[in-house]
Amino acid sequence: MRIVFLALLTLLSCQTFSQVQQFTLDNGLKVVVKEDHRAPVAVSMVWYNVGSADEKGGSTGLSHALEHLMFKGTKKFPLGVFSKTIAALGGQENALTNNDYTAYYEKIAAPHLAKTFELEADRMQNLLLDKAEFAREIKVIQEERRLRTDNNPQALTFERFLATAHLASPYHHPVIGWMSDLEQMTAEDTRTWYERYYAPNNATLVVVGDVNANDVHELAKTYFGSISQHPVIPRKSQVEPRNLGKKTVQVRIPAQVQMLMIGYTVPTVKTATADNAADPYALEIIAGILDAGDNGRFTKELVRQKQVASNVDVFYNLYARYQTQFVLYGTPSQSHKIAELRAGMLAEMKRLQSEPVDAKELQRIKNQIIAQKTFERDSIFGQAMELGLLETVGLGWQVADKYVERINSVTPEQLQKAAQRYFNETVITEAALIPTSPPKRQP
Amino acid sequence: MKSLLTFFILCFALPQATAAKPFVPVQWQTSHGARVVYYQAMEVPMLDISVAFAAGSAYDGEHFGLSALTTRLLNQGNSGLDGNAMADKLAETGAQYQSDSNRDMAIFSLKTLTSPQTLKNATDTFASIINHPDFPMDTFQREKNQQLMAISQALGEPDEVANQTFSKALYKKHPYAHAVNGSNETVNALSLNDVHNFYKQFFVSRNAVIVLVGAIDESTAHTLAETITANLPEGETASPIPKAEPLTEEMNVEVQFPSSQTVLRMGQLGIDHQDPNFFPLQVGNYTLGGGMLVSRLAQEVREKRGLSYGVYSQFAPMPGLGPFLISLSTKNSQAKTAINVTRETLSSFIKTGPDEHELQAAKQYLTGSFPLSLASNRSIADMLLKIAFYHLPADYLDTYIDRINAVTSEQIKHAFEQLVFPDKLLQVTVGKV
């Protein structure tokens, strides 16, 4: 009873809090506002419906490169003025690029919202994209790639994993782009990208914080309302060819520890059909069963019990635009080999197929997932991220409000069916990080 | 579902950097002498609890890595239940437990919902973690192996190698010199008895700070603070960490590493939280290398020359004197250029200090962003812990904006001249130099 009550409480309190309001300007810009009056601050985000998944071979990294150049000035606010203006208001700005989107944000004292709108509206249409600035910034981006990927054995392995798992799909290449594409990219390439995708009718403005929704709507009209829309080429649906057998890739580089990644091809809320609409939520729960922190099966069985692993984690993004990978990744413990870790991980996946999950264990995982939803309300940034993501991939922010209900309705039978349907060992993708030489003794 | 997220999802344009309604935290001591800070936030039905002990790696003595191992072991067997059973008990309530140790403190935190039964179950389990660790032998061996693994992993990351090399060179025999996790040799030598002794000596009420932020009333907060530390004897506050001695001359350390970039750490000894120059240094550092994209270092190294994705400087105040540190990484072939630009930028800043525009901009950012640092329960809890643990003045938050605004250009120049000596810098490079 306690658990039912807890779930109800969450639903109720979500409703009193989750007063999301949505508007659409005449030029097609979507505006999503959620009031949260706990502190006199707000986060403002502009989401563009373009990401690395839209890039073609030879042009990888374009969305992310453009994201960097968005900080390089317009005629009205030349180089450096954007950052200085936000900083002078005590605001914090940044941007992020993913496979499915490019998003810009400012966290700021709520009364300064108008200034962020003015700046964002300006760079939505008047970006300079100066050649000399491009030449400097592309070097910074190459350094970023070296820092985050090339010098990080785990990240490099993950990059190769994705490229192996995704044969034809847009998730094949890395968000930051291959180095040779970064070396050949031109300012003109980024201009083409900017003109093609940066339009009010291809964007969503999200504001969460100490604001009044109608005021935000008016403010949005004032600053973004006059930007003209232009046609955005619709995406062609891309379907990944079925895997015909296991795919493996090895990464042999200087590193200190081994790593194993195993991926299964799975649907998302976006790609699921009427037949398997509950499956992404079942997969979300399975991710929790395996890896809900300290009490997940991986930690209990592989780290604590058999001690074949130093850590094993799961990654699954149920809101991805395209079909995606359910990824297990772990490091064997010191006295064990990758083969033993693999056997342990696969045995846990088999167990999900052969035994229904115990009702008590399932309820525990649901409690954790539902509690996490309440904890997320502590962060206005986290809330804005969720709304913007759901709007941008075309699911709609309302999906966030149904999440708890969907999670709660998943049964042990559904979990077992989903495990049988997707965790087919003969068509997995596997990546192994195999250290060549220890790079360095103790400093 | 943890670390992979960081390299899967987010590709930031800028490196991630690291204030309102009337803000009235309440403070008291438990019956055993633990210090408590409580702040009520009723909007979301949740509670954040942090318990910190002055028991970081600086208290390892000769047993480098002991604080980290004790911290790891705390929830792995309590009141007769094993680690799995403890994890299940917490999971039933949906609560989240975390622990961490750094040089100064060992921190244990709980995030829980506040409906009465859930709150009780979660906090009882948390109390059992703090008060009744069993430290079983098999678990001890397993967690030790985990720590050895973490040590190995760090040696594969040029950033970590650079940080560890920098601390070792800067702090020499001071307790801040060794890595929090210790080394292979020292961790292998740790015994279960060492863990028991460490717990007994440092996990005591007078050595603890408890922070509670969330949707509970004050009397509940009082009860909880007592429960969480019920079994901890009064004990004694840990003796203060001795002040480190500055380097007397310049020092360069080059570590060869098979990476495409060279990681640079440059700096020297800095300050504690009570340093009279605390505010001038914070304001000045914003102009030098604290402000993302807008600082002098960011302008010279990244914006004008494209040499690095990120470049920062910071004064990390610590009781035994934290470091003043500049960090960046750049491809091997341009490491020399980046080092020269960084040194010139630093020297010229020390000579002139910020100009009036820069000073103004620094104050505007530091005061304007103050509400952001108190915008969530989590950030409020972190701030309150910092204030209590490091004994910042009671009016720290109330006077913060005024104290920032009062800083003058002369004070900054004077503070940097007194503290930062460009001819006595420690420079560490890790890469193919």
SSE layout and pairing:
The complex is a heterodimer of chains A (443) and B (433).
Chain A: H1 2-17, E1 20-24, E2 30-35, E3 41-48, H2 62-69, H3 81-88, E4 92-97, E5 102-109, H4 113-125, H5 131-150, H6 153-165, H7 179-184, H8 187-197, E6 203-209, H9 213-224, E7 247-253, E8 259-266, H10 279-291, H11 297-305, E9 309-315, E10 324-332, H12 338-354, H13 359-376, H14 380-392, H15 398-408, H16 412-422, E11 429-435
Parallel strand pairs in A: 2-6, 7-11
Antiparallel strand pairs in A: 1-2, 3-5, 3-6, 4-5, 8-10, 8-11, 9-10
Helix pairs in contact in A: 1-13, 1-15, 2-8, 4-9, 10-16, 11-12, 12-16
Chain B: H1 3-8, E1 11-12, E2 26-29, E3 35-40, E4 46-53, H2 66-73, E5 77-78, E6 81-82, H3 83-93, E7 96-101, E8 106-113, H4 116-131, H5 137-155, H6 158-171, H7 184-188, H8 192-202, E9 208-214, H9 218-228, E10 251-256, E11 261-269, H10 278-290, H11 296-303, E12 311-315, E13 323-331, H12 335-352, H13 356-368, H14 377-389, H15 396-405, H16 409-419, E14 426-431
Parallel strand pairs in B: 3-9, 10-14
Antiparallel strand pairs in B: 2-3, 4-8, 4-9, 5-6, 7-8, 11-13, 11-14, 12-13
Write up this protein.
The complex is a heterodimer of chains A (443) and B (433). In chain A, a hairpin with an 8-residue loop joins β9 and β10. Chain A has helices spanning 2-17, 62-69, 81-88, 113-125, 131-150, 153-165, 179-184, 187-197, 213-224, 279-291, 297-305, 338-354, 359-376, 380-392, 398-408, 412-422, and strands at residues 20-24, 30-35, 41-48, 92-97, 102-109, 203-209, 247-253, 259-266, 309-315, 324-332, 429-435. The model of chain A is unreliable at 1-17 and 439-443 (pLDDT under 50). In chain A, 54% of the residues are buried. Chain A has 443 residues and is an alpha+beta fold. Helix content of chain A is 45%, strand content 18%. Chain A starts with a helix and ends in an 8-residue tail after the last strand. Chain A folds into two domains: 19-224, 2-Layer Sandwich (Cytochrome Bc1 Complex, Chain A, domain 1); 247-435, Metalloenzyme, LuxS/M16 peptidase-like (Cytochrome Bc1 Complex, Chain A, domain 1, 2-Layer Sandwich), CATH 3.30.830. Chain B has two domains: 25-228, Cytochrome Bc1 Complex, Chain A, domain 1 (2-Layer Sandwich), CATH 3.30.830.10; 251-431, Metalloenzyme, LuxS/M16 peptidase-like (Cytochrome Bc1 Complex, Chain A, domain 1), CATH 3.30.830.10. Chain B is built from 16 helices and 14 strands. Chain B has helices spanning 3-8, 66-73, 83-93, 116-131, 137-155, 158-171, 184-188, 192-202, 218-228, 278-290, 296-303, 335-352, 356-368, 377-389, 396-405, 409-419; strands at residues 11-12, 26-29, 35-40, 46-53, 77-78, 81-82, 96-101, 106-113, 208-214, 251-256, 261-269, 311-315, 323-331, 426-431. Chain B has a six-stranded mixed beta sheet, sandwiched between helices. A five-stranded mixed beta sheet of chain B has the order 10-14-11-13-12, with helices on both faces. In chain B, α2 (66-73) packs across α8 and α10 packs across α16 (409-419).
